[in-house]
Amino acid sequence: METPLLKRRLNPILLISTVLTLALIAGMSVVYQDQLNNLVSSKKDLQEELKDKEQTIDSLESERQDLEERTSTLNSTTAQLQEIINEKNQTIDEQQTTIGGLNTKINELQTTRDELNNTVNNLRGNLTDVRSDINDVCGDPNIDNLTEDSQDICDNY
Q1: In a domain, 3, yes or no
Q2: pTM of whole model > 0.85?
């Protein structure tokens, strides 16, 4: 007869428990392998998302720098325009002062003109009175005692 490979008989409980343990270990290995694949996949997804976020950050950083340069340029332009405005306001103030002086001079000249007009009117009135007196004197036929100068005035009148 053949010799049995094992000299002892196997314990069925031990055999079943060993097979079950090995089956359990194999099942757990499949589960852990699946979880490990999920973790690797999640890591890759997170790395891609991180890369996208870094690109977004770089883009936003570049945009921020552009905006800072633009803000700096606008601040410089604003300062220059403020200087121009201040110069214009100073010019306006100087011109208003000049206008005030010219208005004062105009008022003085108008007063002088009014005084001269009054003087002219007074002189015209005097001239009218003198002509009337000359007319009365020269037109009177009874006046014989005129001086030579008075007679010349009457002749020229």
Answers
A1: no
A2: no
